[in-house]
Specification:
This protein is mostly helical. It is 66% helix and 0% strand.
């Protein structure tokens, strides 16, 4: 690697870091800019630059985002969680009734959109059962992470690893290194159970339980698109 390559890579990193910190554009455009600069500078070839867009793991993650968005817009997840959460009387039961269905859903869908959808549901549910959201929101986050370790489609990292493994051993060792949908569950399920037990056992000691801190839980972030024919068009809020 010549001096030019080293200097150009440093320039790319500085530009990328500056774009990410300043938030001039989104992270996707920042990464695309860095990728383009590396290609123009000859650090990587065109084939290497576009190789990631044909990765099966990446395409699967994109498809899962579409599925999660569809479930969110149809209200299917709201119905499922309303039946699963119920109205428990004890804190430990409320936490168990949250982490188990969230972990099951996270094993089948990508955990990032799942958590985003579940936050307002958990906040509203916590008020109904008289439990502080601080005793439930971290359980929501970690349950989605632990549930994602049960299947290869639960998290993006599992999908990427499977895709890289298939590229590394395309023919000779395809059967030996092939990973099925639930193969990682052999390790993921015990880890998830231990994590659930720890959260339910020690959360009351480690997390604040001030119910008064949830006074702002009624606030929801709602986005709406105003059509051109709407009377609200061209007016201020």
């Amino acid at each position: 690697m010549g001096v030019f390559s080293v200097v150009w890579m440093l320039v790319v990193l500085i530009v990328l870091f500056g774009m990410l910190v300043s938030e001039i554009v989104g992270p996707d455009l920042s990464m695309a800019t860095a990728l383009t600069m590396c290609t123009l500078g000859g650090l990587i070839s065109v084939d290497e630059a576009v190789a990631g867009f044909s990765n099966e793991g990446l395409l699967t993650v994109m498809a899962l985002y579409v599925v999660a968005s569809g479930i969110s817009h149809t209200g299917g997840l709201d119905w499922y969680m309303s039946k699963a959460l119920g109205k428990p009387k004890m804190l430990c039961m409320a936490q168990l009734r949250l982490v188990i269905p969230v972990a099951i859903a996270s094993a089948l869908f990508n955990n990032t959109p799942l958590v985003a959808i579940m936050i307002p549901i958990v906040q509203s549910w916590s008020k109904k059962i008289g439990v502080s959201p601080s005793q439930l929101l971290l359980h929501l986050s970690f349950a989605s992470i632990l549930g994602g370790t049960v299947t290869i489609i639960g998290t993006s990292t599992n999908l990427v690893v499977v895709g890289l493994l298939a590229e590394r051993y395309p023919n000779d060792y395809a059967e030996e290194v092939n990973i099925g949908l639930f193969d990682v569950g052999l390790y993921g399920v015990p880890v998830a159970l231990v994590g659930f037990a720890y959260m339910v056992t020690f959360s009351k000691l480690l997390l604040p339980s001030d119910k008064g801190s949830s006074s702002g839980s009624d606030a929801f972030l709602v986005s709406a698109t105003i059509m051109r024919w709407s009377p609200a068009c061209d007016t201020t809020v």
